[in-house]
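Give me the fold.
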Amino acid sequence: MPLRETPLWLDKTSPPHVTTLVVIAGVSALSMNIFLPALPSMASYFEADYALVQLAISAYLGVTALLQIIIGPLSDRYGRRPVLLVGIGTFVFATLGCVFSTSIESLLFFRMLQAGVASGIVLSRAIVRDMVPPEQAASMIGYVTMGMSVVPMIGPALGGVLNEAFGWQASFVMLGVLGLVVWGLVWLDLGETNRDKSDSFGAQFRAYPDLVRSRRFWGYALTAGFASGAFFAFLGGAPFVSTVILGLNSAEMGGYFGIVAFGYMAGNFLSGRYARRAGINRMMLSGSIVAASGALISMGLFEAGILHPLSLFGPMFLVGVGNGLTLPSANAGMISVRPKLAGSASGLGGAIMIGGGAALSALTGVILSEKSGALPLFLLMLAVSILAVLTSLYVIRVARQAGALGAELPD
């Protein structure tokens, strides 16, 4: 049956409603951070080192990065809808495994399988690009991500309360229930938006060289990678700094995480409002500068001896705003360099972004200690934010030479 042009709610013969895209991406984001406050409890429950339990974040991000390389081409070949249904179904099964894990090894195994939900983040971007042109895509991705950011805003707070009341398993129970609901929503509402499927899966990988030869694709991908890297470094290091250095319990820490997510929502609102007017390249540059200022302020407060939760989480509001300004435009740029490869570009770019985040998250677990304090975390966040500024400037330079996005010109 042909796909209708206008989205109709709960009609799988039409493009998905924007609410569906928000929920799909939201459960993917929630799976990353709802159990952050429970990490110390999980380490105690399994009698494992914090660095090992922290692999539930960093190794999960690494598997997510690898999957995104495959998810994009699969969706370009077979369509967005079937890949989403399989990915979210795998997530529900793996979440059940996490709940009943009796060892840290089995928990980490099922946690890696949970990465199937990454199809939600990858394909929500590709679906938007299927529906609208580049500048409008940046605006729509901004609004989708703004709505999605409400989920991680309350996720750590909710996870902290669940952990205090019922134990670490409660967060995974909630993820499983939400996964079932989202699977049903995709089945009922998400019509296939990929109307130009490739001839074969191999053809998609053979098209990768054309994508990776694009200087502008690498500029957008690296900007997204460095910008999100600051946030992922914070995800990896904030639980340690909060509990060991600041003495917060899991519920308190989860509540403070909402400040960062609120900043991210605000940045995405600004992207949705101004990306079409300002242009995606200027939005990226502005966001990267704002994020760098947040890391710098936190570092200054801690170095001045002001060891308060707001010294850590307050300036991270600016990191959230910066990411909200940068990522929608960087993602829209990535998937618009070669429009016929939107799924592949979203997957490869997402792999670069999440893979870098995994490495930075793992690195923070290694470099932080009671002796070092929080300084290594802030230095790392500041360094990658400055790199995002530099790659944004690089994209602006290349754009002046190569012309409009999507043009079949060497870039």
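Residues 134-166 form the longest helix (33 residues).
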